[in-house]
Amino acid sequence: MAGASLSAPSAATSPAPVPSLKRRVCVVGATGYAGAELVALLARHPRTEIAGLFSSGGRSSVRFGALHRSLGGRAGPAAVPLDVDALLEDGPDAVFLATPNETSAELVPLLLDWAPELSIVDLSGAFRLARAADYPAWYGFPHPRPALLEEAVYGLPEWNGAALPGARLVANPGCYPTSVLLALKPILPFLDGAQPVICDCKSGVSGAGKKTDLAYSFAELAGNLKAYGAGTHRHEPEMRQQLGLADDAPFVFVPHLLPTVRGILSTIHVAFSRAVGEDEIAAAYEAAYGAAPFVDVETPGRLPELNDVVGTPRAAVGFAMLPGRRAVVVSVLDNLLKGAASQAVQNYNLVSGFDEAEGLS
Ligand SMILES: NC(=O)c1ccc[n+]([C@@H]2O[C@H](COP(=O)([O-])OP(=O)(O)OC[C@H]3O[C@@H](n4cnc5c(N)ncnc54)[C@H](OP(=O)(O)O)[C@@H]3O)[C@@H](O)[C@H]2O)c1
To answer: Ligand 1 centre and the CA of 124: distance in Å?
Structure first.
């Protein structure tokens, strides 16, 4: 972790509560793709004040307007190399981590040990899996604080909203899992457990974060489309866990890299255990999302596309019935918003007792 100071802060610098009508927040990883979107949302959130922005020790004083075109040239405050003492001295009520998995895994226990009253929304996968034993195989490191896996609330607000108020630690879902779970959870009771659910998912390149590898260069991506990580992507155990599927249940997830910057489109093939009517499936989606501010349900037969949602905090789900007790479900979202930053703000709003849509409408 290049130069970032994750050492325990000294006792003399424990956080002093700062009275404020607005909640004070810090963002770590503010110079990344997801973090920058988060800063843009928090900067216009009416009940939030940005107390501090942090990045790795590899850079210093990065101003956002110059870094991300999507922020419309807003200068914003400077992000400084992470120092835990400095972060706590900023007196945050909440901290967002838009950092790599290993960084979040190390930082969350440190922050909660020193400031147990903090709310943390972690955008990484470090607290999404329930079993610590899964971390070495899927994430490549032993989990440093398994007890926090039990405490973490999986932040899919449309399904776990009741568990969010007052939560100390929210594991913000992965971008592919958000898209797949929103599509599948309403119709789980209709599915034939003996037949595979096949998730053919495609993501824009920003889903991989800032990368300099050859595989992510323009010449390799433009005009191309490729599958990767079949059976080995770390979002698969997250989806199985949230769908209540055993490790050996027939479930296929194949991600693809789209030659576009942002957006996820998941095409999901399902089989039903009995003859199910289009109206029953439509009713199941309506019951799940009729009151959800950020999930649109298409009329039966209309399948959503990336242009419906890119640049917005909304996901959209549509389905078409197929012969032989089958259907195809298509789910779309912006990986940097509903797949990351705007979902993190939804979670933060619910944790804080605000309206779920505060700062997002
Ligand atoms: N991209 C997506 O669509 C997406 C969607 C859902 C979830 N996520 C998750 O969100 C997190 C961030 O993803 P991203 O795509 O935004 O990554 P990214 O573009 O690579 O940005 C990573 C950020 O973390 C900072 N950072 C790295 N190491 C650090 C350290 N040791 N201490 C403090 N800051 C550190 C980086 O700072 P520098 O700029 O100084 O290097 C940068 O601000 C990841 O866990 C990712 O899995 C991403």
So the answer is: 8
